Give the backbone structure.
Amino acid sequence: MDPNLLYWKSQGQSVLSRVRIWCELLDPSLLLCSDAQIQRARSLAGGGETSEKDAAAQTLALSSIHADSGAVLPLLFRPPALMPVSAPLVVASFLPHNSVKPALFWQLLLQSYNAGFNYSNRNSSSEQQSKTASLKQLLLIAGTVSYATCAGALPQIFINRLGVRSAPIQTFFRSILPIPLSAALAFFSVSTIRIEETETGIQVFDSHGSPVGISKAAGEKAVRETALSRAALFGTTAAVPSLLIALLKRTRLFQRNSLLVAPLRHISIALILGLMIPVSFSLFPQLGTIKKETLEEELQAAAADGHLFYHRGL
């Protein structure tokens, strides 16, 4: 088992401990480290020491190295890059656009980045043994981005095509509909981009960290958990600012100064996104467990403790 996964096994079993760890791993300054520094940090991280230097090396390795392949993650798709890259895209995608084209443009950028992040941080353990058709994966990514882009722009499409002028109906399309839509598209993106894991399975480990085989059931569980956490991230990011703005519009301050609404909306979206990233990443363990009775028959004998472990991905 990779040292990064062993760390999650020992340190990341409770939600609060995972939130604390992710708050450290999401530090954008970690993006400034070179690949050589990251590889050196990886060698130090497995040494079992507890000095401040080794703790920093562990943080850098966890935030920059893929737990299955051991390769350095692409710069833009490392966890610390999620907030600085996606925040402007999320804010722009929630703007009240005047036409369909800008809505499609920002949705295309956002959904493309989400697809790249989901693919880069997938569980690739089965791919280490068998290289599956890359063309199928490319088509899945292209299809997912295309569909999610069009679906994400549906509120603006409805407003323009139907010629909506009523304020309550515009509020529904701009503030209410994006909440379930954002959550559904986030769930859809993870589920389709990582469908290979449910079809071919992922590596499972015993309590000693030794690989015991490939499990489709574990793959389905890993993808489902990650999809739910991403739906929580984007659904909450869409819901809380809309609720906050709706409440503040009733106050005298905002009734007299309507120009305050737009900047507050942008700031609140970015703030909620930043707060929800470590929380959503922590909803499920990075090193998940799957019960013996849920596993395939050929793997149940290896679950001496009643369960096996798997890397969930991100």
